[in-house]
Amino acid sequence: MKENNMPETSKCRICYNETDNKNYFIKEMHYGTCEEFEYIECGNCGCLQIKSYPRDPGKYYPSDYGAHNVANSDRPGKFIGWLRKKKLKHVLNEKKSLIGFFLNIVIKPGFEKKMLPADIKRDSSILDVGSGAGSLILNLRNKGFTDITGTDIFIDKDLIYDDCLRIYKKTLNEIEDTFDFIMLNHSFEHMPDQDVVLTNLRRLIKPGKTIMIRIPVKTDYIWNLYGINWGSIDAPRHFYLHTVKSMEIIAARNRFSVASVIFDSGIFQFYASEQIIRGIPLRSENSYYLNKKSTLFSRSEIKKFQRDANELNKRHQGDGACFYLKPL
Ligand SMILES: [Zn+2]
Q1: What's the CA-to-centroid distance between 17 and ligand 1, angstroms?
Q2: Spacing, Cα 251 to ligand 1 middle (Å)
Q3: Is residue 146 part of a domain?
Q4: Could you tell me the distance, in angstroms and rounded to a whole number, from the CA of residue 126 to the centre of ligand 1?
Q5: 149 bridge partner residues
Q6: What's the 37 CA to ligand 1 centre distance in angstroms?
Q7: What is the pLDDT of residues 181-204, one digit of tens each?
Q8: From ligand 1's centre to the CA of 3, what distance in Å?
Q9: Ligand 1 centroid – CA 41 distance (Å)
Q10: pLDDT of the chain along its 328 residues, tens only?
Q11: CA-CA distance, 320 to 238, in Å (whole number)?
Q12: Is 181 helix (H, G, I), strand (E, B) or coil?
């Protein structure tokens, strides 16, 4: 991560504003080291950003940090694979079928629904930036996608699963192919130089195709409610907590239009933040994150978190969203 020698600054790195920026000291509360990191909230675009990048960012990514974990690397058998192909083609509007219709009623489509605004096909070339060892894209391969590439600088080595799925230990600079669809699933906020990332994405996306950036979003509602106790800050791993405005600014500067924004926040925004207020790290034993039987929240409270998250998403005030970018 050579960008780490970027100078410390009080200027917003997204819109370059220097007026009315506020400073906050925010604690590491994922593991609960309570080490403090200085963040700046921009007075113009609202983006919350770390003031200086940690010298050794790898040290904040122990092997149990989310994206490294992998499940179900086995490929489905022939018959199941055939059914899944029908199901996927139906969901993607690539080929409607009665079987596909019923299968999607029996087993609700999952992540692939987020890909619909990109209008992709089963054999579209997909790049997942910051894929970790591939927990998400393995799942997509098992659902029937046939051309998936992952990239992550924090994995130990390249992981070539089969002809449908390969993951490289590479930076974006080192990737040369072009793709029909590029997605960043909660990885963009971890990347120091956001302009360099978008410059690379522009080079890697085919003309007219779509990039999906899925990130935590700093909305007025969640920031007013929780402030520095907001669970999605995840200091010091999240360098940028964008607002819709700051995403629009940086997208435009890199010649992208924001075609749409779909809010997809969940209960995490509430329980993680409520736990931080009580001094409980995300990875403590009684945290709801690790222990769904934790007595910190009643079942009715968890249900209310879900209802509130759904409501906030409708109002574009939940704390997470997918931004769909198109090259201009
Ligand atoms: Zn700004």
Answers
A1: 5
A2: 13
A3: yes
A4: 31
A5: 127, 166
A6: 19
A7: 999 999 999 999 999 999 999 999
A8: 19
A9: 8
A10: 334 445 556 899 999 999 999 999 999 999 999 999 999 999 999 999 999 999 888 889 887 776 555 656 677 788 888 888 999 999 998 999 998 888 888 888 889 999 999 999 999 999 999 998 898 999 999 999 999 999 998 888 999 999 999 999 999 999 999 999 999 999 999 999 999 999 999 999 999 999 999 999 999 999 999 999 999 999 999 999 999 999 999 999 999 999 999 999 999 999 999 999 999 999 999 999 999 888 899 999 999 999 999 999 999 999 999 999 999 9
A11: 13
A12: strand
Alpha helix stretches (DSSP H) within the chain: 78-91, 98-106, 135-143, 194-204, 220-226, 244-253, 268-277, 299-314
Cα distance between residue 256 and residue 212, in whole Å: 12
Cα 21 to ligand 1 centre (Å)? 8
Q: Do the domain assignments include residue 115?
A: yes
Residue closest to 43 by CA, chosen among 90, 11, 68, 70: 11
Tokens linked to 323: 């931004």
Inter-axis angle of helices 268-277 and 299-314, to 10 degrees?
120
Query: Ligand 1 centroid to 246 CA: how many Å?
Result: 6
User: 42 phi and psi, to 5 degrees?
Assistant: -70, 135
Cα of 61 vs centre of ligand 1, distance in Å, is 27
Domain count, the chain: 1
Residue 134 placed within a domain: yes
**In sequence order, what are the residues at sequence separation of 6 or more whose Cβ sits closer than 8 angstroms to the Cβ of residue 108?**
none
- Span from the CA of 298 to the centroid of ligand 1 (angstroms): 39
CA 52 – ligand 1 centroid, Å = 16
Measured in Å, residue 90 CA sits from the centre of ligand 1 at: 42
- Is residue 13 included in any domain, yes or no? no
- Ligand 1: centre distance to CA 14 (Å): 5
Residues written for the chain = 328
Q: What spacing in Å lies between the alpha carbon of 247 and ligand 1's midpoint?
A: 10
Which range marks the domain in which residue 165 is found? 66-191
Give me ligand 1 centre to Cα 220, in Å.
15
CA–CA distances in Å: residue 95 to residues 90, 101, 122, 281: 5, 10, 10, 46
